[in-house]
Backbone:
């Protein structure tokens, strides 16, 4: 079955960086676009970034353009989110997402807290 496992979250000071990873299994990773989302307490889940199956095309939300970079390693079945210049408002649980046969799948999420 489809499994997504996020990792790399933690506590970071404002202006700092983190790299999140999402390890995927249960589908042919190299044939699927992947996305990152986040959800802050009391808020709706928010789209952040998307990458095509080959990695040749990416798309970002305005809120993270220029600070976050999505990438993937198809040999490792892993998608990454490099986050720079983090702000307190980036505090949230971060999720990766894939759509397989019309169904959307989510990982368990990884907590990112930006605080001094």
Residues:
């Amino acid at each position: 079955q489809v499994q997504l496992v996020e990792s790399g979250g933690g506590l970071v000071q404002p202006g700092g960086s983190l790299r999140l990873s999402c390890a995927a299994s249960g589908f042919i990773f190299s044939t699927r676009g992947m996305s990152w989302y986040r959800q802050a307490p009391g808020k709706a889940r928010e789209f952040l970034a998307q990458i095509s199956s080959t990695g040749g095309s990416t798309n970002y939300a305005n809120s993270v353009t220029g600070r976050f970079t999505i990438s993937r390693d198809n040999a490792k079945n892993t998608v990454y989110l490099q986050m720079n210049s983090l702000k307190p408002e980036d505090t949230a649980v971060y999720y990766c997402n894939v759509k397989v046969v019309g169904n959307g799948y989510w990982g368990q999420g990884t907590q990112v807290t930006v605080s001094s």
